[in-house]
Hints:
Mean pLDDT: 91
Bound molecules: calcium ion
Low-confidence stretches: 1-50
Strand content: 15-25%
Helix content: 25-40%
Largest sheet: 8 strands, mixed
Amino acid sequence: MINSLEFRVQSANVEPNTLVQFISFSSSIFFRWLLVFVAILSTFPGYACTAERPNVLFLISDDLNNSLGCYGHPLVKTPNLDRLAERGVLFERAYCQFPLCGPSRNSMLTGLHPNTTGILRNSQIFRQTIPSHHSLPQAFRLEGYFASRIGKLYHYNVPKSIGTNGHDDPGSWELELNPAGCDRLEEEPHIFSLKPGQFGGTLSWYASPKSDKYHTDGLLAADAEWVLERCARRTDRPFFLAVGFYRPHTPYVSPKPYFDRYPEKEMPVVQGVKEDQADLPSPALGSYKKEQDKLTDELRRQCVQAYYASTTFMDAQVGRVLDALDRLGLAENTIVVFTSDHGYHLGEHGLWQKMSVFEESARVPLIIAAPKIGVKGGVAKDPVGLIDLYPTLTELCGVKAPENLQGQSLVPMLKDPSTTGRGWAVTQVSRSGNKKQGGRFFGYSLRTPRWRYTEWAQGKQGRELYDHDVDPRELRNLAAGPAHAETVARLSKQLHKAVNQTFPASGETPELRPAIWAPNLTNP
Ligand SMILES: [Ca+2]
Ligand SMILES: [Ca+2]
């Protein structure tokens, strides 16, 4: 309650001396009675003094890396994300906590690291490990917000579960919409795949003759317009609307005109892979898949073309949702977040897709436009994580957050993007390992403003060190050389301290109880 009062003081542009008066007033008996009165009212959603509380539009794309216009990519066209960046703060160094859908999304939506959610694989939900924790949208629901999901927020098997609830958390939402378009229902027989008949985990693509509105992401945008129109009529109740786009996740299916904007011959093919791989410990390349041996340069170009086309198609759907916000007069009182669940490789280091902790896979786009508080067109450079979204959004909206959240609030960076925060981000990933050597192990990667430092199995399976001041593509692993021994020692200490902070207070990752599960409706 205090938080929401503070928010209204800030949003009303109160001068500092008025604030002093407010604080002295706050100690009066009258004020205490007023607090009780407001607290009682706020327990009834319809009377919760919500008119001033901002709405949240939470947009997330699936498997989207930072190949975007607003992040300086020379080829990829994303005019709608670019205009969103002009309205808010773009986070130059934002990282996921685990480069895989399920663990990353459960972490982001609980505000806890994967070692604390216990969700370290796909097709699981935090209710199986920490069932009483409040998810981010649930925290908003509990304070009278209308919380709704359209598309993929928690894990889904893509494309198989499109049109279902996926591995959803019913407690997070009041309304869930799961459209399925031609990409899921009609076109799968036409999709090219490196493993014929498989589309989700395998490189696969198709230039569809059907226009935007028939595709799943086009239907998501239409559903978002429908929900926003209804929210605009209920000015007494703020909303938390989450829209989870499926593209550019495989299969990269989008309308053909988007493919035509990226001529195949002009698509880049990463060179020098063999030389680059020579200084890498083997777990660094552990996400490589055997079927990718089939990739010729021609297929590599087609793959990049289809990924970029799907990105621009997704961007167009984001544009429709942003237009609806403007048209309905909601933009001035709605905080917009855009991000992705993890990054994506398109051939760097010989890798494709996700599950590596190199920059391309660990890094995510992150734009936050907070109209009444944040700077417009700002760029924040200190490393941040998806783990930071929960405390940021609850602070911005005066919503009570659980006390055990592990991220930092980004509100100071929204007000002044040059502010430094925690100063680092940590991303972890698992490797299956061989049974003789103890089976599964983790890699942890620390990103500071200058360095990326990675340890595999506490260094027993290798280390990597990259200097982003001179090597932004992470081509030269400096970990072995004596010249950087001191840096390795310092960053190793910092990494171990950071990793300790990813565990719960008990120090133990909670165990999964598979029997705790809402009816599983993921396979239509
Ligand atoms: Ca994903
Ligand atoms: Ca290298």
